């Protein structure tokens, strides 16, 4: 397979380069309006409007974090209940074994732990990180995406994708340079 | 800098005058009813008055606290409500006058003012060094001097800044706010000890002042969001205030909901686990009688419900839904103050009087009237705040500018 790729590289998509974030947001929005769906934008800084410009689906992360927090809360509370009433019952100040007010601080901590771990690892998983290889790395100027350049990549898998038409489209929306991305 | 936002709120939004009249009329009607209440049952009048007074005192003091926090922290949230916060703190002179009935009602409210009771009680005798009438009044004077002084100087400089645009004023305001916040923490704590905690003079809790002060911040934030929603429905603020601003303010309000719950639960947990007779009596009156229903209502409506609602991004960003949460929070604040005060006067169980409803309405009417009066004389937004442009950039203006671009 590898040698075949080397001989006949498959086109992954077209990568358009922009000078500033406004041109990128504008181009991404126009690509969305033009009907492109399989595309991705790359920027050295977070751009909040980009999400709306490309009409990306809302992230599932908040729901995951809520679930993680609730799991942590329940786990923490049940663990303490089990320890205090069954595994290692101790009489403290003559209070009932199931003294739930005492369990609240640890339950709270476990909620935060569950929510925070889900937020970090959920974010990585949903983003598909870590990702040691991505076809856009094959375009030399892409290294600037972590410095001062902004990129929009329309993938060849997109139904509307056509090497010449899409290239003309990207140039028409203000791309400084359009390169073919090979896989 | 002449922008539509530097004109007076009273000129830009003429409905403010009408709104102010409505509040003052509610206040006047409430005052007449309250006077009837005073002559029919003066003890109940003072009990209800103390509760209602803390709600409006909290609006002014909480706003003063928020104003100083914003001076130190900066941030778009504070720029957008800065004029409203200033207006709320300038009602403090009225709030100071409104304290007088509590001085006159001392004998009805505080058992430590009765010499025969103190003489028969060794604990109250020992506490008489602090809990005596003349020192109580001296301390009240100190608190009001500190609060009015801070409100006066910060507002004066804020207006100077609007007139001259001198950036040196911002530095001065910041310095005063740093010391001012420390002074506030001390004075609010001791005022809460004096005016609320001493209703049960045997009982003590060191976190009590923070609990009351945290409630003031929460109530003020709810009030300021309600005001902002109302103002931002009208031109020209409808061009400046957007969902991102409400999102920021509501997030801060969520933090205050959690802060209140944290203080409340901390106090409860320590007293519950210590289980000492002189400490638990305060909770015994409030949870082992029919007052328990109010305690449960607080857990539900002062914490669980607003906390869950404020987790939602959609609710926080939508003015028509966030305003409902804010009104509910102010009602919950009143129930909290009711639960802090009323069980001391009715130890056997739940009891409510018509004055518990009329007096808050009367004081909200009076306070709201003077608040809107202050608001009318001010510019809509602080155009000379160093973060004014950034704050505006989060709103709809930025969106329009970009569309044109």
Considering the chains and any ligands shown, give keywords for the structure.
heterodimer; A: 183 residues; alpha+beta; Alpha-Beta Plaits; 2 domains; 4-stranded antiparallel sheet; 6 helices; 4 strands; B: 405 residues; mainly alpha; 0% strand; globular; disordered C terminus
Largest sheet report of chain A? 4 strands, antiparallel
How much is the radius of gyration of chain A in Å? 25 Å
Tally of structural domains of chain A: 2
Query: Rg of chain B from C-alpha positions?
Result: 22 Å
Number of helices of chain A: 6
Mean pLDDT of chain B: 92
> How far is the first residue's CA from the last residue's CA of chain B?
23 Å
Biggest β-sheet of chain B: count, sense, barrel?
Answer: none
What overall form of chain A do the CA principal axes indicate?
Answer: elongated
Could you please describe the fold and organization of this structure?
The complex is a heterodimer of chains A (183) and B (405). Chain A has helices spanning 2-7, 21-33, 48-53, 61-87, 100-127, 163-172, and strands spanning 11-18, 39-42, 150-155, 177-182. With 183 residues, chain A is an alpha+beta fold. Chain A has a four-stranded antiparallel β-sheet with strand order 2-3-1-4. In chain A, helix 4 (61-87) runs antiparallel to helix 5 (100-127). Residues 1-5 of chain A have low confidence and may be disordered. Chain B has 405 residues and is mainly α. Chain B has one domain. Chain B is 79% helix and 0% strand. Chain B has helices spanning 9-12, 15-40, 42-73, 76-89, 92-97, 100-104, 106-109, 115-119, 122-127, 133-164, 168-195, 208-232, 243-274, 277-287, 292-311, 313-317, 319-345, 355-376, 388-393, 396-404. Chain B starts with 8 loop residues before the first helix and ends with a helix. The relative contact order of chain B is 0.18. The chains are: A alpha+beta (183), B mainly alpha (405).
């Amino acid at each position: 397979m590898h040698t075949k790729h080397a001989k006949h590289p498959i086109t992954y998509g077209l990568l358009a380069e922009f000078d500033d974030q406004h041109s990128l947001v504008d181009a991404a929005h126009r690509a969305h309006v033009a009907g492109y769906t399989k595309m991705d934008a790359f920027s050295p800084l977070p751009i909040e409007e980009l999400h709306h410009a490309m009409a990306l689906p809302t992230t599932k992360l908040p729901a995951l974090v809520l679930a993680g927090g609730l799991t942590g809360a329940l786990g923490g509370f049940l663990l303490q209940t089990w320890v205090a009433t069954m595994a290692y019952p101790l009489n403290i100040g003559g209070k009932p074994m199931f003294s739930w007010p005492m369990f609240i601080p640890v339950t709270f901590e476990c909620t935060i732990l569950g929510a925070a771990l889900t937020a970090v690892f959920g974010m990585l998983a949903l983003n598909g990180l870590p990702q040691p290889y991505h076809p856009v790395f094959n375009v030399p100027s892409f290294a600037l995406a972590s410095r001062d350049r902004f990129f929009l990549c329309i993938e060849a898998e997109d139904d509307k994708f056509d090497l010449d038409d899409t290239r003309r489209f990207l140039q028409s929306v203000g791309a400084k340079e359009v390169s073919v991305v090979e896989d | 800098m002449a922008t539509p936002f530097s004109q007076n709120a009273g000129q830009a939004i003429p409905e403010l005058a009408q709104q102010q009249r409505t509040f003052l009329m509610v206040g006047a009607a409430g005052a007449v009813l309250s006077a009837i209440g005073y002559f029919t049952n003066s003890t109940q009048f003072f009990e209800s008055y103390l509760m209602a007074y803390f709600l409006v005192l909290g609006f002014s003091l909480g706003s003063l606290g928020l104003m100083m926090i914003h001076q130190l922290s900066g941030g778009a949230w504070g720029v957008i409500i800065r004029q409203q916060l200033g207006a709320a703190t300038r009602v403090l002179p009225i709030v100071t006058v409104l304290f007088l009935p509590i001085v006159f009602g001392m004998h009805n409210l505080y058992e430590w003012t009765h010499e025969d009771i103190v003489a028969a009680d060794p604990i109250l005798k020992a506490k008489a060094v602090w809990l005596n009438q003349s020192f109580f009044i001296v301390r009240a004077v100190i608190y009001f001097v500190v609060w009015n002084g801070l409100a006066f100087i910060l507002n004066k400089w804020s207006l100077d800044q609007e007139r001259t645009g001198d950036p040196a004023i911002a530095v001065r305001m910041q310095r005063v706010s740093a010391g001012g916040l420390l002074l506030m923490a001390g004075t609010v704590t001791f005022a809460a000890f004096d005016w609320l905690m001493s209703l049960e003079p045997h009982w003590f809790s060191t976190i009590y002042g923070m609990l009351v002060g945290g409630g003031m911040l929460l109530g003020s934030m709810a009030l300021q969001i309600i005001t902002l929603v109302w103002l931002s429905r009208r031109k020209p603020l409808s061009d400046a205030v957007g969902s991102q601003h409400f999102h920021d303010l509501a997030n801060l309000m969520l933090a205050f909901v959690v802060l209140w719950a944290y203080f409340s639960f901390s106090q409860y947990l320590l007293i519950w686990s210590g289980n000492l007779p002189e400490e638990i009596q305060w909770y015994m009156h409030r949870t082992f009688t029919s007052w328990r229903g109010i305690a449960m209502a607080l857990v539900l409506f002062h914490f669980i419900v607003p906390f869950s609602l404020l987790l939602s991004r959609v609710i926080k960003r939508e003015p028509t839904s966030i305003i409902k949460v804010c009104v509910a929070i102010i009602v919950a604040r009143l129930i909290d103050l009711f639960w802090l005060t009323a069980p001391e006067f009715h130890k056997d169980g739940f009891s409510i009087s018509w004055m518990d409803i009329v007096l808050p309405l009367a004081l909200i009417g009076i306070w709201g009237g003077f608040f809107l009066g202050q608001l009318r004389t001010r510019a809509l937004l602080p155009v000379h705040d160093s973060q004014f442009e950034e704050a505006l950039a989060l709103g709809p203006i930025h969106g329009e500018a970009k569309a044109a671009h």
